[in-house]
Write a structure and sequence with these properties.
alpha/beta, 10-stranded mixed β-sheet, two-stranded antiparallel sheet, 10 helices
Amino acid sequence: MLSFKRILYPTDFSSCARQALTQALRFAKEFNSELHVLHAVLLHSQDPYNPAYHFPDPSEILQRLNQLASSEMTRLLEPHLGGALEIHQVLERGIAAGPVILDYAQVNEVDLIVMGSHGRRGPRRFLLGSVAEEVMRAASCPILTLRERPEAEVVAPIRTLVVAVDFSENSKTALALAGELADFYDARLHIVYVLESRRFPDFILPVSEGLVAKAAKLHGMAEERLQEMAEGVLGQKDSFDLHVCLGRAAPEILGFSDQVGADLILMGGQGFSPVEDLFFGSTAEGVVRRALCPVLTIKASPAQGHDGSGYQEGGAA
């Protein structure tokens, strides 16, 4: 049976993080999970070499930061305390939020991380980085991310799932989890593969008949392999639809998800390094930055809890 025993919700008390709290609470209640609410108390959060950070007494600053964080944590969780849900409030010190979140998740054998993403693109993302994307690249457990919206939305029932695959081990693991979630929520599952198209300059157009025939053949081969993969991972279920799209991966996944009204997108995270991500980009991270619905990324070898409760390919252990 699918199980998330421990769910980690990191927060910096921003509006972006607050929007993700509703999803963290929802999953914790539905899966009867422990909810660990984590705030990283950062003394030198952006530039440790800035002299402005050094002249006050660091111990006094840390004490004050802890007091403020504790008060904010109480205000954030007060409406949700006292019920059946088990909530752990945690303050951890560190230099940067990403390593604090990753260390806590590993030490406490977390099964799912739920967090907000600011969805920054271009120069701001390059200069400021993204904690959500850092966690996506390095964490071994599934990550549920939500892009910041102008207005918080009511958490809707999960009725439509979209899982994007590329035939890698990561995407097979994402497909297996998608199948279990579809069963749990009695939701319709759409399995999408994007056949990447290359951009041709205008001077070689119109496209030759041979190139059109080749594209049609590739489309048919992709459909056959997608069917084989789906049956191999999910078995002979009749509750999924297969789709092969032509274009650039991230925009096609996003466009298709909007078209079918996806409530949740699942993808296999590639774990790119920061340098690879800077120059080549990542489909999963591109989808996370722009998706209207939550996005769940998962790697092929997620961490398993000490009692075997963590999610594994093909189902929960």
